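ok so i was messing around last nite and threw this chain in just to see what happens. nothing serious, just curious
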Amino acid sequence: VGDVMTLEDGEKVERFFGVMQGLMAERRARFAAHGGSFARSCEKSEGCPAILVVINGLAAFSDAFPDLEEELIGLVRGSAQVGIFIVAVGETPGSVRMRLKSYFRQIVACNLPDPSDLIMLFGSLQGAPRPHGYGRGLAKVHDVLCVFQAASLCSESENEYDTIVRACAAW
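result:
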């Protein structure tokens, strides 16, 4: 079951953090028999689904809800171990505050025009080439910097949404 919240849904966003804290506590108790780990619980086939939370526009979220920064940090810090995965999208490297950034295990950067933005995100490029071109980027996974090429359903000039709608309708 999914839901979508916007910046105008202030009360709903605040309730969300309370619900997530309760869910994390419930999952910690449930997974305690397996060392408190979602991964070990899945190995034992307990049948607990993973949860994906996407925050699109992290800077706007931080500006709209400055009082929820501690709750967001708590959610990001303890969520992966209990099968709750957070994807936070920022338009610029400065969108993710340093305190919050330290709790994300993986960082992905696409289409950053300024090389200093990459340094700001990753610290050092560790000898990796600066990505050039559509769909190319860098990802830091388990402290290893990787260069990647993303695939797209359409050319750079086409509207991706329309292409996806046409592909789904034809399927």
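not much to say yet. The chain is about 40% helix and 15% strand.
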